[in-house]
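Hi everyone,

Forwarding the result from last night's run.
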Amino acid sequence: MENFSIKKLSKAFDIEIDSIASDKSISHRCAMFSIFSNETSIIRNFLTAEDTLNSLAIVEQLGAKIKRDGSYVEITPTSNLTEPSDVLDCGNSGTAMRLFCGLLASVNGSFVLSGDKYLRNRPMKRVADPLRSIGANIDGRENGNKAPLFIRGVKELKPFTYHSPVDSAQVKSAMILAALRATGVSKYKENELTRDHTERMLKGMGAKIETDNEGFINIYPLQGHLKPLNITVPTDPSSAFFFALAAAITPNSRVLIKNVTLNPTRIGAYEVLKRMGVEINYIQKENIYEPIGDIEVKYKELNGVVVEDNISWLIDELPALSIAMSLAKGKSLVKNAAELRVKESDRIKSVVTNLEKCGVSYTEFEDGYEIIGGSLNKACINSHGDHRIAMSFSIAGLVCDMDIEDVDCILTSFPNFKEILDSLRD
């Protein structure tokens, strides 16, 4: 699947989807957090994509016993993590590399984290420097900024008080994981709430993590083992958003997406679509670890929008939102989104250069862009090896023919994306 062509839809669609990829963020964490228990964790609907399977393989290299039947996974941890004899391959996943940095920082042994050519070119100092400040021993290429990263675990990390200069769930999660094995209570603060799956899941397993009146997350060191996970991973709202976008840009169309995490930090993009005029309805269900439910999206005419707050809640969906902005009436503005430049690609540059090929007028800023909406023209798109760029412009192809280059990257997060995309024509 090196590239493919998308043809314009000839009719509206009304569809229910229950086969969208499981949540990648939660699947990664299920694999990692299982090793904090001394009993077998049971994980249903684990995402069987390259990135998350790499995390599962790393946990196995660290000594855990894995039983897997499709998306059903049992993880039985070892009493002491094993020093691996080979490199720990994170594939294309910045989440895996950054979180394993925090997890392994206090584990006795030496560890090398690496990945594909795209991951090896992504900056890691934003996680490595805070960890180094509490005593972690982490090195890598370009003065410790690029993978492969070498970690020599420190038995006792210092407790810390850290106010992060960047709002990043990956940085926060790495610091929380390190804090679990520190010698005292650690405190972490962010300016804007980022994805909180790490806090929710660890608390569900019995970890003591509390937020105080000053906004600091207080992380208490582990006293023994945590309870094992027993979880069904919900649908990934970031993956589901591509089909919410499809309904939003295809006249008279509707989609109902089943069993999605409705965590407030994960549905910000749906709220932006709602502000643009799209009809969005949430149907809540019960779940222990995460709020889950169904999301209904119905086409309405799109209007321009300003996006400058809670950017950390939108960082994965902004490329797809940019397609909606390009088809909306008036101007749309994205600001305070410099984080986009350090994702799988420089997503600001990837978005605007590909939109330019589609005939869209824009202004690029260091931390965002302005788009003048109207229409999209057929183009040949370069994904730059970024799965979200590839999928966003694939959805754009539903309103104008589109050729997408380098789409193998889609397999890292959403193996059946093309299958569901094709089903819209049935």
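Residues 237-249 form the longest helix (13 residues).

Cheers,
N.
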